[in-house]
Each structure stands twice: as C-alpha cells, then as structure tokens.
Design brief:
about 50% helix, 4 strands, mainly alpha, about 100 residues, two-stranded antiparallel ribbon
C-alpha cells in the first residue's frame, strides 16, 4: 500500500469518511463491498478487496461490529437490528458461496 493512499485515506477520515474494518482504509480510497440486509438496503463494513480475502467468520465479526454501532434499540424500516444482523450474515454466506470461497 502506497504512502499516498494512506495519506488520502487519513484525510478522508478527518473529513468524516468511514473505513473498512479489516484494512482500515477510508471509503474515499476503497470501494465498500455491499452486503444486502433487505431489499434496497445494504451495508458495507469492509472493502471489496478485504471481502474477497476474509473468511466468513471474519466477515460476520465485521457485520456484528457495524450493527452494534447502528443499534439504537427499536427498529430500522420496521426491522429489528437483530434481524438486520441475521439477514446480512445470510447474504454474506450466499455471496461467499457464489464466489466458491466458503
């Protein structure tokens, strides 16, 4: 990873961008891997490169971390955060299976 990427990433974080939970790079320098949890809604706790490299257990941990941050009690679009967590993990498993990596 080049120093310019790291500098751009750090500037992105200062500007308010989130980051990949695996490699730590900000979303202004990497693309998030979209993990659907309901029709029309996705989360991206890790980047595309890291999703391909991570085990399903690692990905589940990153999903848990993001949902824990989101969870303010109650619901989101009529879904509990527990259901969002379950749906995202199911989607991640399906995607990894389709990539023949589980």
């Amino acid at each position: 990873m080049g120093i310019l990427i790291v500098i751009r990433s750090e500037l992105g974080k200062i500007a308010g961008y989130g980051n990949c939970y695996k490699c730590g790079l900000a979303w202004n320098v990497v693309e998030g891997y979209m993990i659907p949890y309901e029709r029309g809604s996705s989360m991206f706790p890790i980047c595309e490169k890291c999703f391909k490299e991570a085990s399903i257990k690692e990905i589940e941990g990153y999903i848990d971390r993001l949902v824990d941050i989101w969870d303010c009690g109650g619901t989101h679009n009529g879904m509990t955060y527990g259901q969002i967590r379950i749906n995202a993990k199911r989607s991640a498993h399906k995607i990894k299976e389709e990539l023949c990596e589980v």
